[in-house]
């Protein structure tokens, strides 16, 4: 099967952008989004302090896209085959990322510990 690389890239860019936009609104109802942001979110916003992405800046991906990226990388290394080994490899790599420790910090303890690779 031949897959157009531009389509794959488009899917990845779309997923990353949607994840980054959604970081500011995660766990909010539609009404809460309208009340907090003054309407629908149509641009990248810094996630508020009560969201999982609170340590992110506007436009940064969250653990959701990071996990998807590492799963994709592992599947490519394993000839596109889903296996226990490929998933262990992906999630072990994700678990070691300093950026994910921000999810479990108090609101006032957001530090920059490096970028994902």
From TrEMBL:
Pfam families: ADP_ribosyl_GH (PF03747). Keywords: Hydrolase, Magnesium, Metal-binding. Gene3D superfamilies: ADP-ribosylation/Crystallin J1 (1.10.4080.10). Binds 2 magnesium ions per subunit. One of its GO terms (molecular function) is hydrolase activity. The keyword Magnesium applies. InterPro entries: Ribosyl_crysJ1, Ribosyl_crysJ1_sf. This is ADP-ribosylglycohydrolase. It comes from Salmonella enterica I. The lineage of its organism: Bacteria, Pseudomonadati, Pseudomonadota, Gammaproteobacteria, Enterobacterales.
């Amino acid at each position: 099967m031949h897959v157009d690389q531009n389509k794959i890239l488009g899917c990845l860019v779309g997923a990353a952008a949607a994840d980054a936009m959604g970081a500011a609104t995660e766990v909010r109802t539609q009404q809460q989004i309208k009340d907090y942001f003054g309407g629908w979110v149509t641009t990248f916003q810094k996630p508020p302090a009560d969201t999982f992405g609170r340590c992110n800046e506007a436009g940064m991906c969250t653990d959701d896209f990071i996990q998807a990226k590492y799963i994709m990388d592992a599947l490519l290394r394993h000839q596109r085959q889903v296996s226990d080994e490929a998933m262990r490899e992906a999630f072990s790599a994700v678990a070691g990322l300093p950026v994910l420790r921000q999810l479990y910090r108090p609101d006032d303890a957001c530090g920059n510990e490096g970028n994902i690779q």
